Amino acid sequence: MARKVDPAHTSQMRARIASEAGRLFAAHGYERTSVSEIAGALGTSSGSIFYYFKDKAALFRAVFEKDIPAAENLIAKYVDSSDPLEAVLDLVEALGKDASDPSASGMLVELLRHVGEDPELLEIVDHTASVLRSGIASLISRGIADGSIDASLDAEETASWLQAIVDAAYLNARPGYSPRLELRRTVLGYLSPKSHH
């Protein structure tokens, strides 16, 4: 008799494996982390990892696949805010909150190293970025309309720029140091309506 596949168990196991893989990829790099090391850390076999992921590249992609629903949930949390400027500041702060975690910058470096070689990975990263960009742009447009955000800004371009600032916070991160205040101050200065003298 064929074994019944339990979708909830499968998705839990995939998440557990991806989480451990992410930790090891961030600490040691993609190339220097073997599937057997990931399996060992989870107390299972490489074969069981390959039951859930077709190869190591698919496992690496899975680390970033969870960013899509996370981005959607984050945008959903702020999209209807009555104060669009404050919502953008909170959103950027939320996006930058893991910059003090040393594994986060390690993972970003690994991502930058591999995204050019893996079209599927690029698609995942682009999808996450576009969810965030359109959500932030929509808040910026609302802020421009209510006068709390500089009307000379282009909402889409500004949203992309804010994402670049968050990425820079990760690339320049110092372990244990949160750039929260710097991020907030930079974004506030950039978005605030300029007073003309």
Automatic annotation (TrEMBL):
One of its GO terms (molecular function) is DNA-binding transcription factor activity. It holds the Pfam family TetR_C_6. The lineage of its organism: Bacteria, Bacillati, Actinomycetota, Actinomycetes, Actinomycetales. Keywords: DNA-binding, Repressor, Transcription, Transcription regulation. This is TetR/AcrR family transcriptional regulator. The keyword Repressor applies. Residues 11-71 form the HTH tetR-type domain. It comes from Ancrocorticia populi. Residues 34-53 bind DNA. The keyword Transcription applies. PANTHER family: HTH-TYPE TRANSCRIPTIONAL REGULATOR PKSA, HTH-TYPE TRANSCRIPTIONAL REGULATOR RUTR.
